[in-house]
Design goal:
mainly beta, Immunoglobulin-like, 2 domains, four-stranded antiparallel beta sheet
Length: 126
């Protein structure tokens, strides 16, 4: 593996022709990677390429504080995420939190007051 690339040699059992497969992966931002693949025959006459950007959703952490607040936190990434909440797990409606996250040490933080009802939270990319 050199320069984030892997090169395979592929043979065909029926014709003894060969081909190569090149896969390149590059991190473009925290939680985002560009992946490209190219297949070419050994004569260089035929080739095909495809590529995609893959995004890995960050993990949302929910913690409580000693002064009865809830802290939502998630790592910064190349994608902007909105935090949502709901009080009924079986409801299909999520409410976007309008609190602007505070950024510190590579993490986003939203601090919420506690309530007497259950709360469920999620992130969604913009």
């Amino acid at each position: 593996m050199a320069n984030n690339s892997i090169l395979w040699s592929i043979g065909n059992m029926n014709t003894n022709d060969t081909a190569s497969l090149s896969v390149t992966v590059d991190a473009v931002a925290e939680g985002a990677w560009n992946i490209s693949c190219t297949v070419a025959d050994s004569d260089g006459l035929t080739s095909a390429s495809a590529g995609a950007t893959i995004y890995i959703e960050p993990r949302l952490s929910v913690t409580g504080t000693t002064d009865r607040q809830i802290v939502l936190s998630w790592p910064q990434s190349g994608v902007t995420y909105n935090a949502f909440a709901k009080t009924d797990l079986f409801s299909s409606f999520w409410t976007i939190l309008t609190n602007v996250p505070t950024v510190s040490n590579g993490f986003n933080f939203i601090i919420l007051p506690t309530t007497n009802s259950a709360g469920f939270f999620r992130l969604q990319g913009q």
